[in-house]
């Protein structure tokens, strides 16, 4: 697509002002897909792969780590943009370091396989397994807070900190982009974050409501039909 076409697409999309203040996504996924249909088939296919790579929470449970690593490697090789390649690497590094924190907290030792995860930091993490924060706290300033929330089993704060870190990274990258495929990708990734946060928030609200009802009803709560 030409820059003019990207300009038309991006200006047709509602502004995403904030993450944590959002109650709903600024545009439905259906409407978003309709706007994105102006992209070429190749662009839409690549965008879909980048979305899955950056937000693969919906990946099948039976997908092995080896399959995911293969998919990550293959998708990254199809990206010709230095901006998007670096963004993908950052996100994969984030996933890897958070996964390493979880494994280490569970008492696991350093991974035995050289290629055990995604991104560019997996070997560095393996070599620095016994060092606090894998010696990556200066590269990822949010890492100590994530580790603290994880240790305290504060899932809400942990989720919020991780989403905030990704949001800030997209903020940083967005300042270098205007009307381009990269800018479209960043918009869609922002939309995904808002969707995830609002869904997570709604699920928590339901849990809180259920807990309040149970506390109010006490022993009679178990006598009610589901």
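^ Assign residues to that structure.
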């Amino acid at each position: 697509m030409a820059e003019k076409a990207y300009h038309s697409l991006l200006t047709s999309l509602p502004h995403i002002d904030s993450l944590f203040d959002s109650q709903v996504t600024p545009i439905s996924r259906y409407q978003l897909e309709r706007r994105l249909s102006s992209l070429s088939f190749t662009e839409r296919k690549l965008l879909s792969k980048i979305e899955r790579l950056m937000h693969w929470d919906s990946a099948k449970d039976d997908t092995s780590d080896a399959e995911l690593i293969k998919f990550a490697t293959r998708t990254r090789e199809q990206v010709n943009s230095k901006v998007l390649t670096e963004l993908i690497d950052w996100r994969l590094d984030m996933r890897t370091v958070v996964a390493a924190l979880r494994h280490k907290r569970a008492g696991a030792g350093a991974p035995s396989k050289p290629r055990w995860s995604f991104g560019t930091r997996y070997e560095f993490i393996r070599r620095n397994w016994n060092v606090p924060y894998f010696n990556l706290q200066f590269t990822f300033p949010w890492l100590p807070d994530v580790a603290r929330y994880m240790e305290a089993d504060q899932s809400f704060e942990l989720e919020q900190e991780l989403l905030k870190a990704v949001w800030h990274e997209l903020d940083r990258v967005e300042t270098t982009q205007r009307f381009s495929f990269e800018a479209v990708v960043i918009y869609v990734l922002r939309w995904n974050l808002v969707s995830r946060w609002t869904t997570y928030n709604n699920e928590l609200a339901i849990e809180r409501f259920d807990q309040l009802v149970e506390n109010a009803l006490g022993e009679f709560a178990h006598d009610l039909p589901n």
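The first helix runs from residue 3 to 11.
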